[in-house]
Amino acid sequence: MTRRPDDNHVGRRAYSTFAERYDAAAPTKPHNALYERPASLALLGDVAGLDVVDAGCGSGICSEKLARGGARVRGFDITPEMLELARKRCAGLDVAFHQGDLARPLDWLASGSTDAILCSLALDYVEDLKPVFAEFHRITRSGGRLVFSMGHPMRDWADPRARRDANYFTTNRWGLHWGGFGEPRPYVESYRRPLQDILNGLSDAGWRLDRFVEPLPVAEMAAVDPEHFAELSHSPGFICVRAIK
C-alpha cells in the first residue's frame, strides 16, 4: 500500500483511531469545556462579522461556536475522520473546511485574508513551530489576532514518571494513553518543548505577544470533576496565548 506523506503525522495517526469517541466526549469533557476552551475563546473575544480561521479544527467544536458568534469561519485539520464530523456539526453554518497540515504551507489561504486565528490544542502535534507562526502571520491582516493553546511546558516536568530522562531544553516526542474517551484508551503522541521556544518563535515570526494566560478551571468544574478541579486550581495544565500582528 502506498503511504501518503502525512501518514506519520502524530496527530492524524492518533485521532483517526478515536475520532467519533472524541467528538462525543469533547464538547462536555471538563478539561475542554470547563478549562481550556473558555479561556481560549475569552482571549479571542467578539468575532461577529470577522473572517476567522480555526486551525487544527478537529471535529468542529470551536468552528461551530465561532460561526454561531457571527464569524465567517474557515477550518482545517489533517485528519479526514475529524473533518467529516466537523462538516456534519457545522452543516448550514457559514463554515468551510479544508484538509490541511499545520506543518506545511497554508497555500489555499491568501495573504492578509483573515482577521483572527484560533488554534486550540493543535500545536503540540507539530515539531517545528516557527514555520507555523510565520504562515499564521502571512494570512492575517494587520492588527489581526492569533489565539492558541498548548500543553503547559512545565506540566510533565513536575512528574518524574512523565519526564523520565528527557531534556527540558530540547523538543522531544512522547506519548501516553488518554483517559476520558472510553476503551480502548487511545495512545496519543505529541511534542513538548521549552517555553522560550514557543514565545521566541512567536516573536521571530513578527507577532507581538499581547496576553499570556495559565488558565484556571471555571467554577462549574468543581461539581462536575472535583478531583481535576482541585488539581488544575493549583497547577496549570495548559497555556493560552494571544498575539497581535
TrEMBL record:
One of the protein's GO biological processes: methylation
InterPro entries, per database record: Methyltransf_11 (IPR013216), SAM-dependent_MTases_sf (IPR029063)
SUPFAM superfamilies for this protein: S-adenosyl-L-methionine-dependent methyltransferases
Keyword Methyltransferase attached: yes
Pfam annotation, one family: Methyltransf_11
Keywords: Methyltransferase, Transferase
Limits of the Methyltransferase type domain: 53-148
Any one GO molecular-function label of the UniProt entry: polyprenyldihydroxybenzoate methyltransferase activity
CDD domains: AdoMet_MTases
Xref: PANTHER family: JUVENILE HORMONE ACID O-METHYLTRANSFERASE (PTHR43464:SF23), METHYLTRANSFERASE (PTHR43464)
Protein name (Swiss-Prot/TrEMBL): SAM-dependent methyltransferase
